[in-house]
Amino acid sequence: MTTPLAHTPAARTETRPDTGALARVRALLPGRADTPRWIRLLAIAAVLLTAVTALAMAADARATRTGVNVIGHHTAPTVTATEDLYFALADMDAQVANVLLAGSDSTLATVRSTALATYEQRREQADADLQQAMTIATNDDAARQIRELLDKFGQYEALAADTLQLSDIDHGTAGQPSARTLDAYRAATGLVPDLLSRAQRLADRNSGVLSQAYQDSEHTTVAARTRIAGLGTLALGVLIGLQIVLRVTLRRRINPALAAATVLAAVVLAGGLAANAAAAHQLKTAKEDAFDSLLALRQARALSYDGNADESRYLLDPAHAAGYQQSFFDKSQRLARVQARGADDYSGALDKALATHAGDPQQAVGADSFLGQELRNITFGGEQQAATQTLAAYQVYQRDDHALRGLAGTDLRAAIALNTGASNDHFAAYDKALVATIDINQRAFDTAITQGENELAGWTAWVPYGAAMVVAILVLLGVRPRLAEYR
What pLDDT sits at residue 10? Predict the structure, then answer.
């Protein structure tokens, strides 16, 4: 007779649950009536979980603080140095042009001497920026870019020196240098677009590194809070469970030592999460509120000096005036975009835009322009007023440019006087307002970085470690007398 399949050993094996793992777990746990072992197990688990939470809290605090430090004291200064390099290079060429505009005219001698002094100052500044960039280059590609930029910078310096020397020898009249001096200047200024392009690529690269560092730090802080909250909640759960076991089995209403351990663990957990969140908030303030504005404003300043150089080039080199005029217009639109067709109607279009949006300056210029970006990212005290004053000063400077172009075709001497006199003064006023706006954001950035680091002071070691030790001692003090009752 055949045995039914349901009663064969094979069938019984298939329907029997695999209890091997469960059995091993149960073997590690005390029996339901073995209260002393339960107390010991929960006490050990509470101490271990508290220690692990403290280790994680300290490690995460160090990682977050390192991220704040890297952004605040390494990557941000690197971006600043490369943007400063662009500014210095642009102004160097503007000053060479101003020297040639002044020529040997005695009435413009002050203009010439000031331009020569400023050129030397910017040359030293650019050289220092390049040396700093080389020192902090993070990889071979960055170092290669800087070496190439150094080489181009050396070529420009040599050509600019030839131009200035020829200007001294030939004694050209105001705005009308000799043919060979003008040829030398054309050779020098011809290198400027490539120089500035290389400097901007380097700045953009460093800016990308900063943005990536910020994203990494942001991810780190979120992951840290999640990890700390999970471990800390588990530790609190075990501490509370231990007290419940003692209450149920020993009929004690409260265990003071364990209650104190639980409260301390909860306070430290909340403090660690709050410190991490506060540091993350300060990092956000530093990057999104302050540094994004700083980047736009520093780019605006560098571009403004290059545009100001285009004015001088426009007067100095009539054969290429149309190209310099278009270049000035393009830069003006990048600084503050308005509905204008060209340089001749840009000033009027800017006046109209500002008049239309007098109560809301941020709507006057395009959001994709540098000043537009700043006006839409107003965050700090005094920033709105400073940004509005910058735009107003820029408006005055643009009116000068419109007048200058009107004079250029009929009275070159008057156009040069305007360019090196009132227009230069108004550009300085615009630059001063721009720098004031930069300073507001720079102070806010520095403050946020410092506060972010301070928020985590102590949390990288002694606060979580000390709290874990105290919790362990309190747990020991809480369970030892109870265990003694079973001896």
Answer: 45
Structural tokens at position 77: 């200064």
In this predicted structure, the answer to whether residue 374 has a pLDDT above a threshold of 70 is yes
Contacts of 313 (CB under 8 A, 6+ apart): 97, 189, 320, 324
Give the pLDDT score at 40: 84
Q: Give the C-alpha separation, 312 to 190, whole Å.
A: 15
Which residues does 273 contact at the CB level (< 8 Å), separation at least 6? 225, 228, 229, 232
The total of other beta-carbon atoms located within 10 Å of residue 392's CB is 14
CA angle 296, 88, 111 (to 5 degrees): 120
For residue 15, the model assigns a pLDDT of 46
Q: Which residue has the tokens 């362990």?
A: 472
Closest by alpha carbon to 408, among 345, 325, 349, 326?
325
Weakest-pLDDT range from 197-206, 349-358, 462-471 = 197-206
Give the number of residues written for the chain. 487
3-state secondary structure the chain: CCCCHHHCHHHHHHHCCCCHHHHHHHHHCCCCCCHHHHHHHHHHHHHHHHHHHHHHHHHHHHHHHHHHHHHHHHHHHHHHHHHHHHHHHHHHHHHHHHHHHHCCCHHHHHHHHHHHHHHHHHHHHHHHHHHHHHHCCCCHHHHHHHHHHHHHHHHHHHHHHHHHHHHHHHCCECCECCHHHHHHHHHHHHCHHHHHHHHHHHHHHHHHHHHHHHHHHHHHHHHHHHHHHHHHHHHHHHHHHHHHHHHHHHCCCCCHHHHHHHHHHHHHHHHHHHHHHHHHHHHHHHHHHHHHHHHHHHHHHHHHHHHHHHHHHHHHCHHHHHHHHHHHHHHHHHHCCCCCCCHHHHHHHHHHHHHHCCCCHHHCCCCCCHHHHHHCCCCCCCHHHHHHHHHHHHHHHHHHHHHHHHHHCCCHHHHHHHHHCHHHHHHHHHHHHHHHHHHHHHHHHHHHHHHHHHHCCCCCCHHHHHHHHHHHHHHHHHHHHHHHCCC
Backbone angles phi, psi at 33, to 5 degrees: -90, -5
Threshold 0.90, pTM exceeds: no
Measured distance CA(156)–CA(92) in Å, rounded: 10
* pLDDT the model gives residue 415: 93
Position 216 scores a pLDDT of: 86
Give yes or no for a contact between 276 and 61, defined as CB atoms under 8 angstroms apart: yes
Give the range among 59-63, 286-290, 321-325, 328-332 with minimum mean pLDDT: 59-63
Q: Taking Cα atoms as reference points, which of 218, 260, 211 lies closest to residue 64? A: 218
- List, for residues 47-105, the tens digit of each pLDDT value: 999 999 999 888 888 888 888 888 888 888 888 888 888 899 999 999 999 999 998 88
